[in-house]
Amino acid sequence: MKKLRLLYIEDKAAQRQTNARRLRARGFGVTTAPSGRKGLAKFDSDRPDVVLCDLNLPDLSGLQVLERVKAASPATPVIILTAHGSVSLAREAIKQGAYHFILKPLEINDLEITIHQALEDSRLHQQLREYSHDLERKVS
């Protein structure tokens, strides 16, 4: 079975290293980046299955990263992470295309479940698009 590839963008080195290690222990392939720009460069070169992105980064906001990832690859799930969340921020992130908005500190079991749900939803949406396209082709 193919190892699921995650891109984890987090500016705090200790959190990035700890959570990346925990995710690797769960069987994920994890690439990390300390900033939005570096994360986007890794996204462009690696095309991970899921992006985990801190909301507050030193160069770009997590919402800016979300916007650029969705522009390049609409089907890639992006999960926004933050220690300073609010309902309005969560609503805005979801409205802009985030799969989920998770408060830190991260509970690894919940995060793993969310990652798998995001991938399954993405797979189902892709199947639905393919079926719809096939049906349109057959009808015309």
Verbal overview:
With 140 residues, this protein is an alpha/beta fold. 54% of the residues lie in helices and 17% in strands. The protein contains five helices and five strands, in the order βαβαβαβαβα. α2 (36-46) packs parallel to α3. The N and C termini lie far apart (38 Å).
Largest sheet: 5 strands, parallel
In the predicted model, the low-confidence regions spanning at least 5 consecutive residues are none
Tally of alpha and pi helices: 5
Order of helices and strands: EHEHEHEHEH
| Physical arrangement of strands within the biggest beta sheet | 2-1-3-4-5
Structural class: alpha/beta
Beta-strand fraction estimate: 15-25%
- What is the terminal separation in angstroms? 38 Å
Structural features:
about 140 residues; alpha/beta; 5 helices; about 55% helix; about 15% strand; globular
List the helices and strands and how they pair.
Blueprint: E1 5-9, H1 13-25, E2 29-33, H2 36-46, E3 50-54, H3 62-72, E4 78-82, H4 87-95, E5 100-103, H5 108-139
Parallel strand pairs: 1-2, 1-3, 3-4, 4-5
Helix pairs in contact: 2-3
Structure described in brief:
The protein has 140 residues and is an alpha/beta fold.
